[in-house]
Structures are given as structure tokens and as C-alpha cells.
Write a structure and sequence with these properties.
Blueprint (H helix, E strand, L loop, with lengths): L1 E3 L4 E6 L5 E7 L2 E9 L5 E7 L2 E7 L5 E7 L8 E8 L5 E7 L4 E7 L5 E8 L5 H6 L4 E4 L2 E7 L3 E7 L4 E6 L9 E7 L5 E9 L2 E5 L1
Antiparallel strand pairs: 1-2, 2-3, 4-5, 5-6, 6-7, 8-9, 9-10, 10-11, 12-13, 13-14, 14-15, 16-17, 17-18
């Protein structure tokens, strides 16, 4: 369980029956959805630290295995990792935004904390309340990674997990170029399903 505190964030570890096992305080601000657990039970999370992107990996005991900062594409006063996921081999995929800039970061990190590749994307919608409601905008499926972004317009990116960008395309729903994506899913045939909403004044219209 992750929670923010006055110096950054805290990771609280509980047993299966709800007994608190320990608490670890960190000087890293963890974002709402940037938290995953790998196949070995290690906690992996991302956020911001001293105006940098940050990714941290912690053992089940609560000890920090490694933590490092990233600046890409340029330093920003509010860079933060917003989404993070792990594959079956323990590799980490993380996406984030550089503050109010139009740039975003997508990167892959090895289980030992080595940055394997990174790419620049459009930024993500910059309000925390948006992130809190939109948990599924990065999808790992087999050897592919799909990412939805939104700056002045929405786009879908697709990558091989080795780092090759396969596509970047505008996401247009009924003529609306700025749909807010809630979740991405793929079926066994490889078809992509997208759900979210279209902002329309004070009302919001959902789409699938």
C-alpha cells in the first residue's frame, strides 16, 4: 500500500490477513497509478524526485533495491512517472510527463535497474485528478506495448517491447480529437478495445 506523507511517500506492507508488517518512508513523490508488483513480489513504483522522473524498486522485506532519477527529454520542474507495469521477466515499462511541456517519456528498465531504451511521446493530461480516474492508459500485451497520450489531441502509440516504435496515430471519436482514455484491452485476436469519455461542457459522454 502506498501513501504520500510530508517528505514524499510511504510504502506500507501487510500480510494476507491484514497485519501491518512494516513501513518504509521515501523522499519520492509517488504518482497515483505508478505502482506495480513483479513476479518475485518486489514493489516497483515511479513518481518524481527533486524535479526528475524517478523509478524505485523495493524488496518484499521493505529494503530499497535500487532507485534512480531520469531527465528526458529535458529537465522540468514537475517531471513524474505516471504509469508503470512489469512483464514476466521482471522488466519494467514506465511512462510519464515533463510538467506542462508537450513531451512525455516512455522507457524500459531491466530488473537490475539498467535503462534499456527510451522514447519521446506526446505528454499526458497534466492534472492529478485525471490520472486518478484513468488507470489503464498503458497496456502490455505479449511483445507489444500500447500507450494512449493526450496533450492538445489524443494519440495512440504502439511499440515492440524491444523498443521499436510501430505506430503513432491520432485518436478521433465522432470528430472529437481529445477523448480521455480510461482503459485499453486487447482480445485473443489482437483487436484493441478503448473506453473513456468525451468532454462536452459540464457533461461527459462515454465511449467504447
Amino acid at each position: 500500500f502506498l501513501a504520500r506523507n510530508t517528505i514524499g511517500s510511504s510504502l506500507l506492507r501487510y500480510s494476507a490477513d491484514g497485519v501491518l508488517l512494516g513501513t518504509t518512508d521515501l523522499d519520492v513523490y509517488i504518482e497515483y497509478n505508478a505502482f506495480a508488483v513483479d513476479e518475485e513480489g518486489n514493489a516497483v513504483f515511479g513518481g518524481g524526485h527533486d524535479n526528475h522522473f524517478n523509478i524505485t524498486k523495493m524488496l518484499p522485506t521493505g529494503a530499497v533495491l535500487w532507485s534512480f532519477d531520469l531527465d528526458y527529454p529535458i529537465p522540468s520542474a514537475s517531471s513524474y512517472i505516471s504509469y508503470i507495469t512489469c512483464d514476466g521477466n521482471g522488466n519494467i515499462y514506465a511512462a510519464g510527463s515533463a510538467g506542462s511541456l508537450q513531451y512525455g517519456l516512455l522507457t524500459k528498465i531491466s530488473p537490475s535497474g539498467i535503462q534499456l531504451w527510451s522514447d519521446t511521446t506526446e505528454a499526458y493530461y497534466p492534472t492529478p485528478s485525471y490520472f486518478a480516474r484513468h488507470r489503464g492508459r498503458m497496456l502490455l500485451h505479449g511483445d507489444r506495448l500500447t500507450l494512449a497520450t493526450l496533450y492538445t489531441a489524443a494519440h495512440l502509440y504502439e511499440y515492440y517491447t524491444l523498443g521499436n516504435r510501430l505506430s503513432r496515430q491520432a485518436l478521433d471519436v465522432d470528430g472529437n480529437t481529445g477523448p480521455r482514455v480510461n482503459a485499453l484491452r486487447k482480445d485473443d485476436e489482437g483487436d484493441l478495445y478503448i473506453t473513456g469519455f468525451l468532454p462536452s461542457g459540464q457533461s461527459q459522454v462515454g465511449f467504447l
